[in-house]
Structure formats: structure tokens, C-alpha cells
Design goal:
Layout lengths: L4 H5 L2 E5 L1 E3 L7 E3 L5 E5 L6 E10 L7 E5 L9 E2 L2 E2 L5 E6 L6 E5 L5 E14 L8 H16 L3 E3 L3 E5 L1 E2 L16 E4 L5 E4 L6 E10 L4 E9 L10 E7 L4 E7 L4 E5 L5 E13 L1 H15 L14 H15 L6 H12 L3 H10 L6 E7 L4 H12 L6 E7 L7 H11 L3 E5 L5 H11 L5 E4 L5 E2 L3 H11 L5 E9 L5 E5 L6 H6 L7 E4 H6 L11 H10 L8 E12 L13 H18 L4 E6 L2 E5 L9 E7 L3 H14 L5 E7 L5 H12 L7 E5 L6 H10 L5 E5 L3 E3 L4 H9 L4 E9 L5 E3 L2 E3 L5 E3 L28 E5 H6 L13 H11 L3 E12 L11 H17 L1 H5 L31
Parallel strand pairs: 23-24, 23-26, 24-25, 28-31, 34-35, 34-37, 35-36, 39-44
Antiparallel strand pairs: 1-4, 2-3, 3-11, 4-10, 5-9, 5-11, 6-7, 6-10, 8-9, 12-22, 13-16, 14-15, 15-22, 16-21, 17-20, 17-22, 18-19, 18-21, 26-30, 27-31, 28-29, 28-30, 32-33, 37-43, 38-44, 39-40, 39-43, 41-42
Helix pairs in contact: 3-4, 13-14, 15-16
Amino acid sequence: MAPPDTLQALGLRQLRDIELTGDSRWPMRAVGDDPQLRFAAPPHRGAFRVTVLVESEDGLATPAVYLNTGSGFADALSVPLRRLADGTWQGECHTVQPCLAWRLDPLDRPGRFCVSALQIEPLWTNPHRPLPVWLGRAGQRMAAAVQRLRLQHDRDDLQPAHDLACPDAPQAPQATHCAQHRYLATGPDPQLRLAHPVAAGWYMLEVTLRLPAARAVARLYFDDGTAGDAEARSAGLPLRSEVLAKRLVRLQGDARVRFDPMAAAGAFEVLHFRLARVAETFAHQRMRDKLRTHHPRYRSATPPDAADLEVLWDDYTALFESRGAELVQYADWIRGIELPALPSADTQRQRIGTWAWRPTVSLVMPTYNANEAHLLACIESVQAQTYPHWTLCIADDGSTRSGVRQWLATQAAAEPRIRLALREHNGHICAASNTALALATGEFIALLDHDDMLAPHALFAVAEALQARPSAQLLYSDEDKLDETGTRCSPYLKPGWSPDLLYSQNCFSHLGVFRRALVEAVGGFRVGYEGSQDHDLVLRCAARVGDPQDIVHLPQVLYHWRMSEGSTASGHARKDYASDAGRRALQDHFDTCHPGVEVSVVAPGLYRHRWPLPADPPLVSLIVPTRDGHDLLRTCIDSIVQRSTYPRYELLVVDNQSSCPRTLAYLAALDAGTEAAGRARVLRWDHPFNYSAINNFAAAQARGSVLGLVNNDIEVISADWLEELVSHALRPDIGCVGAKLYYPDDTVQHAGVVLGVGGVANHALRGAARASPGYFGRLWSLYNPSAVTGAVLVVRKALFDAVGGLDAEGLPVAFNDVDFCLKTMAAGYRSVWTPHAELYHHESVSRGADTTPAKRARFLGEVAVMQQRWSHWLQDDPHYHPRLTRLHEHYSLASTTEILPPATHR
């Protein structure tokens, strides 16, 4: 759908972080936290009035207007808008310089919206006459001074300087900007420079990059004209791909600034860059706050003298430099972790010789106008397999490129294990894949694209896993990508079998291996699902697998996906039709297996599956323990009552010895029904704090068939949060259901729990930006973690009772929620985390930290309980990966110094 004509008439020239939906009511959708509509210069100079009506689906639109007079869209050139009675926004602006462009920011978060009205009208105009030469030069000097005193620099000010090219135009001059701020680092020292000098002072640096590896270290260099880009005048910033990173920067003199995004070759994208001036007092306070959180000396009873600025700055800077030692580049991980764990080719052959059963594998590969160099590399990677019991079944789909079909015939003639079919007419990938499938005689089918490559031990790993699980029906491995230079990058280390993740994205391919009888039973590939034919096939096959243990994950990178032009390895947006095919495949699956589920596209290649509620939704008992904390409790209760749309719930507020008069008065009002719309009951727990016992006590008095554990420091964001959580909790195979929780600064607090991190468990991807998709879209995908937090946890009451509730004896305060989730998993139920139930969590404000000796001893005792009870899962979380780090929760690669669980099939 084209943008509205009214917007085009005003000079609309670019949408940023905005997609067109085709919905007449909400024609646009913000897909990031900084959506922008950029326009050409306003038709009037001098002073003008802006009137805008922006409506958002959540009713919370806060539009903003910015001007660009040559220094970027700075906050100093924003148009103050005031809300009028009819819901429109209006503001006035006076400009001394002519505008080059202007922009409208309709929202400050993702969501659907509509620009109903937008008008610019002059208040007075100021047509400029030619200026004398001397006055023009004075203006140029003044403009240079203004540039030097700029308060903010953003990614539009970055210019490629060294070891950089544009992926879409590799030969483009380096002084030009790359489209969409995507770059290809052609060497190990990529550099960008700010277009203008930066004045002395304190700055906040904000960076978000989409990296070729999970982590990297960026660095700013400051050249004051005396020593060039000296290492001593630089600032490091550890980065995680697609996660916002921040730090303070101190310039003691005016400088030209260089930005090194990473120290490796590969493709990357600058999603966000801002260097913004801050007050010195703010900088000092920010450093103290950071050090109190991360530096043990600043948490002691006698911290260093915060008045000593140099000590403060040195300690603050050391936090960022020391963290760099934890970062692992993929090439180092391959050398230090992957290769040492692989058996040698001789060892593999010896093991094969001991097997009584050597399963045969037919690799199915459709081709069409293939790049001969890539196709040769693909075929050679099959011929290099240490496991010899394979056939390669190739179906050429009527290639028109000269010599391709003859070349394929030559390859087949030279290798007896290659079987070739030459189709007369192009039928597209599903038809060609079925032709290749007809050539297969192996017990198992493996899917291979004509420009990708297998690891030399790929089929050995498959056959070895089948020795341990002969009944396996489906097997899948980890994968990575090959960049434009053929270098391995972007490893996707996958979890164990997670049906809800498969419903959210195709996490099965690649390498995907199917029992041939199963593929034939479902009818092979379905024509009409081109672009997501693999996803469609695995959905239909998985639906016929009775035992989930017959779907086996091989935690090894066995498949290298080439990022060739037009392939989905370069991004799902390259094949828009694939997302629609994936949605239809999922909808077909649910219509057959789970009628009533509705599927929609969240982003290219990512889907939402919305499960239905019964016509008569069950009563939900929301349990809210509290002690004092009037303001937190009221915010929590008010947000539930005022924002929730779920029709049937009760609030069980459990008072644990409150003494604050305001809290006691509020609890009395709740109990009397004069607050919370009469939905609340107040229960009294007159005993020492024991989170497990409090919730068990309230659950025993709950009237609902569904329980919701809710902390008193929770604040509802999405109105349908409870519908989303309850709809999954009612699924018979689901145990605990968790929500997406944010800190008040809009960074992620909870997105599921990873076992083993920190000794027991920690929150997955904690600290990621709210709009970030996370590790391979994980923050936008429903998936099955091993546990979710009890801060917001929904579960059927019958299941809560069946596993004995929370452990009040061994785990009175910490880890009781994780233990409860693991009890349900041991009983055969899966946990679910959903990003579509969003709430704020003002974490631990009410209870405080475990800093006293008694609390510390209690905590260590709870750690011991968890490690004794669940040691096998804490050592190897089945929904994490054995080769990802346990040092933190950010899904980055493990270092060679970590003690890792064995990477066996699971």
C-alpha cells in the first residue's frame, strides 16, 4: 500500500523503522523504537505552524517533529508540540536558516498507527536576498562554529574511512554513505569517522550494531591534532549484536573522532549511533552509579573517594576494558572450542567400522542457474564427507544459463553416488525438490541448497546420533553463514526441541534430516509453499512424530549457509513471499492439529501463533504478595484493573506484616471493595517472609482454575497480557507461562530463564533494548525455555497442586520459581515464554538485596538445594546450548576457559 497522498504531497521521501500494513485503519506499523517519516524541506521559510493528528492502536501516541538545517535532526531543533482538545497536536517554529529536511516521529515504540492529518502553514515568510561575499564568509565561519558546538552526532554523521565497502555496491567510493547504513568490512580494521569535529566535554555514547558474530568490541579514537588516533586516547565499548550498549566518553580537548565498530572482517549494520553531550554533574553521578553496581570496592563500607575524578574515571573506564577479555570471536571459538571437540577423520572411520547399522542418507538438492563455483564447492563438501554411505540427488529445474546442465552431467558421470534428473521446464523449488526426492533411496533424507556447504563430519554426526537413537524420525543441527568472502560467520547455536519456537520461526533448517518413510507419508514438498517449503515439510512431519525424543538436536555447526544475493541467508526481506508462505504453512498446520489458532507475521520470517480462549474464559486468581510499599502496590493493582481486558479474574493481595499507615489504609479499601473495582480480597500472612509459603497459602484459597503469580512491583503495559498468558496455560501440554518484562528504562528484564548461568539460573538476554529482536529473533518469538520467572507466572491450579506448589522448606526466597518450572518439566510439561504479554518490573524494590550475613547464608543454602536437586539440567540446559557461555545470559559464545557440558545429541 502506498503512503497516503497527503504525505506524498508534503514531500515524504523516506520511512524509517516503519512498514506499510495494508490495513485501512492502521496503515503503518513502527517496527523499532525510533520510527520516522522523513520529508523534504518545508515549503515556507521563517515561521510556520505544524498541526498533526497521529492515532495509535494502543491510544498512546506522542508525536514529535524535528528539523534539519544542516546539522542533522538535533533535539535543539525540535518543534514543541502541545495537545489540543480534539486530540491533535500543534506547534510553532521559527527558523533562521533554511531547512534541508524535516521529520515526524509518530511513536516512541513499536506499534501500528495512522497519520490522520498533517499540515504546515506559514505564520510569516522571509525570502532571502543575495548576501554580500564577506557576509557569506562570516556565515560560513559561524556555521563551522555551530558544527563544533553541536550537542549530538548520530549515524548519519558517520563516514566510511578504512577497510569498508557497501555490500550492494562493493566498488563504491569509501567517502559515500552505504544504503541503510550496512557495511562490509573488507579487512580486520574497519573504520568510520564523524564528519565534524567534536568539542571538549562529557558525552554519552550509544551504539547498536547488527554484527557478523554475537559479540565484538567497538572503540572510539580521539585525534586532537597532536598524536593522531592514539590508543591512549580511545574508549572501548563491548557490544552484543542488536543490543544497545552505552558508556560515558570524556574529551579533554576538541577532537576528530574515529569509530571502529569491530576488529574483524565481515558484514555489519549500524542500527543506532549517538554521541550526545551531557552535563559534567550527570557524568559524575552516572559513573558512581555504575561503579556501585559493578565494582566490588564501591559496594564496600568504605568506597573510594568519589570526589577524586581521576580515580573515578579510571575505575569506570576499566569496567569496559576488562569486559573485552570475555568476548569470543567466532574464528577463535572455531579454533578453541569446535575443532578440539571433533574426532579426527581416522577416529570417525574407526567408529563407523564398529557400527552394526550404517544408515544411508540421500541428500536432496534442487538447482536452477547455479553459480558454478558455489555449486562445485557444495558438491565437493558432500564428497569430502567422512561418512561414505550417501547419495546426492540433484534435480536441475530447467536452467537457462549456458553450460550449467552439461556441467552437472559431467559431475554426475564422475561420481557414482550422484544421481541427476534434468527437468525440461522450470517448476520452481517445490516441484524440483520432489523430482530430486524421487531419486532418493536412502533411509534418511537431508536437504541441501545448491550454493551451501556441509561440514566434513556432518553426515558422520547424523549417523552417530542414530546409533544412540535408532527410532529418531527428525534430526536438526546448528548452522552458520558464509559471507561474501566465504568466511564463516553468524553462528546459530540452537536449543533442544522447542515446538513453540518452530511455530515462531523455522529453527529446524539447517541441517534438516528426515526419515524418508515419514517424508513419503506426508507427500513430500507441497507446491504453493515456495520460500518456506522446508518449514512446511517439518511441520507436517513433526505432527506425526509421537515421541518428542524422536526429534533429535545435534548441537554442532554442520551446515554453512551462503549469503548469496537474493538468498534468505542475507535476510528474509530478500524473499518477501517466503513470510507469507510460512504463515500459510503454519495456519494449515494449526487448522489441522489445533483449530482456532490464528497465525500472523511479526517480522520477515517470524510469526505469532495466537491461541483461542474458551467462550467462557476461566476465572484467574492473581496472587500479589506485599509488605508495605504503598506506591508500588497501588501502581501494580491500578495497572491491572485499568489496563487489563481479560473479563474474569480476582486479586488475592497477601499482606505480609505491613506496618505503613498508607499501605494499611489502602489494603482496607481493597478488602472493602472500594478499590480495584471490588475484585480484590486481602489475605493476612503474619509470619516471616517466605515467598513460597505465601503463594502456597494464597493458592489454597484461590477460587480460580488458573493461578497467576504476580509481584507487587509489576506494572501492566499490554492490555491483553492476561488473555495471552492464559491462552497458553490452558494448552494441555504446557506447564508454566511467562511474560516479557522490562526494567523502567525499557531494557529487557526477563525473556525466559537460562539454567547454569551464575551457578543456578539467570534471565535470558537481560539488558537488551526493548525493540531488539534478540538472538536470532528470540525476543520476538514464543519459545520453550526450561523456566520462567515467578514475577509474572501463569499456570493451571490443578498442575500447581499436582507438583506440590512452591518449595517452602528448601527454597523460601530464591529460585523457588525455577524449581517449580523444573518440577513441571520433569512431569512432562513444557514452559512457554511469550513476547506478546508485556509488563514493567521494578525489580526487588520492595524486598531489598541479600546483603546481610543471615540473608547471604540463606541464599547459599538455596543455591546448594538447586545444585543438588537439578544438577543434570543446571549443567546442560536442554533449551540452551552446551557451547554457549555460562558466564552471563547474553547467548554469546563460550570461551576456552569455561568448563562445558559434552555436546552430544539431545
